[in-house]
């Protein structure tokens, strides 16, 4: 019942992945910035919220019923790139 966090840093850029079982809130990202766009995409039947500016996604949020997940990129990622990362997570392989 704890938050798990994995961080990858390369120079000034970082990617942060988080997951938590049965969180009180689905947004466990810790990212409270305001973005130009917030839309949903389906990845392997799971609804993923993408937050973006200038065609780059900075935060992705999703929930599979038992766990909440977030993926943050300090420099932003192309939409297709962030979706590929999400597709490669364990929840998508269990279907």
Keywords:
14% helix; six-stranded antiparallel β-sheet; 95 residues
Q: What would your notes on this structure say?
A:
- With 95 residues, the protein is mostly beta strands.
- The protein is built from two helices and six strands; from the N terminus they run E-E-E-E-E-E-H-H.
- It is globular and about 35 Å long.
Structure described in brief:
By secondary structure, the chain is mainly β. Helices cover 14% and strands 54% of the residues.
Q: What is the strand content?
A: over 45%
Main β-sheet description:
6 strands, antiparallel
Residues in helices, as a percent range: 10-25%
Nearest-integer average pLDDT? 90
Query: What is the succession of H and E elements?
Result: EEEEEEHH
Could you say which structural class the secondary elements and strand pairing correspond to? mainly beta
Rounded radius of gyration (Å): 13 Å
Shape: globular
Which sequence of strands runs across the widest sheet? 1-2-6-5-4-3
Distance between the termini: 23 Å
- Strands, count: 6
**Number of helical segments with 4 or more residues:** 2
Poorly predicted sequence stretches spanning 5 or more consecutive residues: none
